[in-house]
Amino acid sequence: GQSLEQPSEVTAVEGAIVQINCTYQTSGFYGLSWYQQHDGGAPTFLSYNGLDGLEETGRFSSFLSRSDSYGYLLLQELQMKDSASYFCAVRSGNRDDKIIFGKGTRLHILP
Amino acid sequence: SAVISQKPSRDICQRGTSLTIQCQVDSQVTMMFWYRQQPGQSLTLIATANQGSEATYESGFVIDKFPISRPNLTFSTLTVSNMSPEDSSIYLCSVEDLDRWNNEQFFGPGTRLTVL
Description:
Chain A has no helices and eleven strands. Chain A is mainly beta. In chain A, strand 4 (31-37) and strand 5 (44-49) form a beta hairpin. The radius of gyration of chain A is 13 Å and the shape is globular. By secondary structure, chain B is mostly beta strands. In chain B, 0% of the residues lie in helices and 51% in strands. The termini of chain B are far apart. The model of chain B has no long low-confidence stretch (mean pLDDT 93).
């Protein structure tokens, strides 16, 4: 079977740094993506890792280790507006195969 | 990027009836997906709808229950047939352009369905 594991909830303080981990088990691998979803909103794309290493986009960074089937999303200088659910997602096979979403991590930010 | 609209945004329906959800994209896209999401839960893929071919359904979802149309590269519909309260959920349309290198999917605002 195919599965993605990520923590169900994480709590951090405003201004701090938080890391959300994701491990995956799939029959193939084409890339790891991260999405953000605020309550009542649609998921929005944050980042993509097709190769090992770190990708940085402003306050957000994403890391991938294909040998470990592991990745993480790093959020720096946390702001209250970052309170949301974060989903890792994996395309398991070819470029036109479906994307599988993890169960999501609810990020709570304390003032 | 792609801008996606869905109709209706929400509906309350009676058991046994059917609802058709429309998804309109502002540009031509190759891949279109329909998801279901319970509040606070993950996204569950119902089916992939590519223009010019039959929709591909995921395990647990069948065409008789969730018929899908994809008449062109900017539009699709999902029908939830013979509804029961278990079908109450948020239904999301999503698109992806295979020409984009980063696997980015764009999501519509969703249709919140409540079945009584």
